[in-house]
């Protein structure tokens, strides 16, 4: 399938980029690595008049530590994330998530910012224009019905990025810039919870940095992903766990499930079962049950929702166990 | 959607040769290689990044040319399968694929061979797990991968 025609602009600075985003708004789309937007363009899921390439913007990639944070520029490729000595081996869930994205040739060019801003997917939505026209409009294409869930009163499309749940587990924030201003928001707040428009950014905003706080006490993390094949596939369910420890007791804990609905879900109640517990006293199954309880999944991906719902519990348990094992091995 | 935009200048460096082209901005590198330059080694298959038959090397790393605008490859070094043989002699990875029956229908071979070359350039003695991870984005429907893995091992000088 050929790409639709568009004008191509490749500004040389962030300021020029922000000015163009402000001028064209919804009519312009940003291209970083291009592995996500190109597929969406081919399927006519987006038809902008302009594509803005970030290839000439200097300083848009790289990883550095600054004031107790690891700062990852949004244009950093997943390959660079995986290889970074600032992340490996400490931030293991981030590395595991980046390694789980598609396959190495995609990781060579796809960026962390692009992965965060991946759009939601659904078997009804991610189809060619021909198939979509035959099916009729759904919530995500401007209609008033859900084609995937009969009687569904909203969009059930699924966020299938790998990095966001891992970044949320580390309580990461992002820097978002637009002409004349910038703001910091949590990765959690980047998501709207709405399948039609899963992110809370406006059309003139650009994600420029990801800030990863370095935990003060020893910590471990783990990302587990369900997919049909060992590579290439998007997650059909995923779980990420972060755990920090002091004197053999869990201090901070976060559990994030993803590929369940339009945004990754932070399971605070389940994480609360970990906090304050001695590592040796943690009932992994109880916490995993609590994490997966009530998580919805619709029949709109290649595995049935009933199976995926069961797998959230399994993946959460595996991730908790791995994090606990790593802490034990490290003698924490 | 808009009217067809003007063609614009695109300077590419492919297999150590410079090309000065005028192309529409929405052309992928794969389309330009195959349709404008008759470099038909890179194959079009899924055209959505899921199969790896269109693999080329960009600054030495395997990427999907079906997901890459030709304009985005400007200022970068592109290597296609046509660029591997030197003076009529196959590249050692190509020879190993022939020798060890790593090729059946041949459709995945350009992508597989380039991916293997990039791996061996970076890591001359990979383990089998590293080989399998490196080619995990390239789908082969004939060989079952065993012969391909053997060929890459052989090219790395390992006993198989």
Name some characteristics of this structure.
heterodimer, A: 332 residues, alpha+beta, Uridine Diphospho-n-acetylenolpyruvylglucosamine Reductase, domain 3, 4-stranded antiparallel sheet, 12 strands, 29% helix, globular, B: 160 residues, Ubiquitin-like (UB roll), DNA polymerase, domain 1, 2 domains, 5-stranded mixed sheet, 16% strand, elongated
What is the CATH C level class of the largest domain in chain B, in words? Alpha Beta
Rg over alpha carbons of chain B: 16 Å
Rg of chain A, alpha carbons: 20 Å
- How many β-strand runs of chain A? 12
Query: Do you know the CATH architecture of the largest domain in chain B?
Result: Roll
* Greatest interface: A-B, 32 and 38 residues
Termini separation of chain A comes to: 54 Å
Query: What general form of chain A does the structure show?
Result: globular
CATH topology of the largest domain in chain B: Ubiquitin-like (UB roll)
The number of helices of chain B is 5
Question: Please, what is the CATH homologous superfamily of the largest domain in chain B?
Answer: Beta-grasp domain
**Unreliable residue runs of chain A:** none
Number of domains of chain B: 2
Instruction: Summarize model confidence as the mean pLDDT of chain A.
Output: 97
What percent of residues of chain B are in strands?
15-25%
The main pleated sheet of chain B reads as: 5 strands, mixed
Could you report the average pLDDT of chain B, rounded to the nearest whole number? Answer: 95
Q: Spans of chain B with pLDDT under 50 lasting ≥5 residues?
A: none
What oligomeric state do the depicted chains represent? heterodimer
* H/E element sequence of chain A: EHEHEEEHHHHHHEEEEEEEHHH
User: How much helix, percentage-wise, in residues of chain B?
Assistant: 25-40%
């Amino acid at each position: 399938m050929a790409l639709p025609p568009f004008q191509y602009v490749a500004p040389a600075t962030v300021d020029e980029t922000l000015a163009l985003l402000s001028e064209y708004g919804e009519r312009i789309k940003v291209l970083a690595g291009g592995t996500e937007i190109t597929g969406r363009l081919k399927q006519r899921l987006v038809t902008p008049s302009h594509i803005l390439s970030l290839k000439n913007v200097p300083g848009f990639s790289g990883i550095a530590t600054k004031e107790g944070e690891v700062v990852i520029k949004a244009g950093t490729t997943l390959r660079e994330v995986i290889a970074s000595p600032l992340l490996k081996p400490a931030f293991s869930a981030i590395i595991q998530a980046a390694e789980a994205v598609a396959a190495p040739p995609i990781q060579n060019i796809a960026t962390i910012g692009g992965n965060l801003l991946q759009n939601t997917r659904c078997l009804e939505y991610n189809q060619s224009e021909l198939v979509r026209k035959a099916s009729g409009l759904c919530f995500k294409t401007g209609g008033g019905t859900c084609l995937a869930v009969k009687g569904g009163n909203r969009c059930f499309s699924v966020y299938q990025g790998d990095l966001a749940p891992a970044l949320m587990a580390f309580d990461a924030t992002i820097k978002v810039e637009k002409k004349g201003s910038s703001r910091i928001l949590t990765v959690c707040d980047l998501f709207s919870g709405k399948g039609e428009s899963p992110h809370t950014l406006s059309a003139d905003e650009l994600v420029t940095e990801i800030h990863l706080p370095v935990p003060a006490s020893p910590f471990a993390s783990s990302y587990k992903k369900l997919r049909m094949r060992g590579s290439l596939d998007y997650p059909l369910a995923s779980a990420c766990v972060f755990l920090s420890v002091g004197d053999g007791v869990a201090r901070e804990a976060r559990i994030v499930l993803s590929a369940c609905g339009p945004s990754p879900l932070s399971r605070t109640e389940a994480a609360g079962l970990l906090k304050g517990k001695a590592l040796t006293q943690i009932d992994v199954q109880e916490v995993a049950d609590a994490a997966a309880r009530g998580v919805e999944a619709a029949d709109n991906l290649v595995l049935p929702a009933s199976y995926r719902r069961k797998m959230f519990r399994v993946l959460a348990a595996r991730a908790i166990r791995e994090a606990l094992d790593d802490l034990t091995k490290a003698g924490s | 959607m808009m009217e067809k935009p003007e063609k614009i200048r695109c300077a590419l460096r492919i297999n150590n040769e410079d090309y000065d082209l005028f192309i529409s901005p929405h052309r992928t590198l794969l389309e330009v290689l195959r349709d404008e330059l008759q470099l038909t080694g890179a194959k079009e298959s899924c055209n959505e990044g899921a199969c790896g038959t269109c693999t080329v090397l960009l600054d030495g790393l395997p990427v999907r040319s079906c997901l890459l605008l030709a304009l985005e490859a400007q200022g970068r070094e592109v290597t296609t399968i046509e660029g591997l043989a030197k003076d009529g002699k196959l590249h050692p990875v190509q020879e190993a694929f022939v020798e060890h029956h790593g090729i059946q229908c041949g459709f995945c071979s350009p992508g597989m061979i380039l991916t293997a070359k990039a791996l061996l350039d970076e890591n001359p003695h990979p383990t089998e797990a590293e080989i399998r991870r490196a080619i995990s984005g390239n789908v082969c429907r004939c060989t079952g991968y065993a012969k391909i893995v053997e060929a890459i091992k052989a090219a790395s000088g390992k006993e198989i």
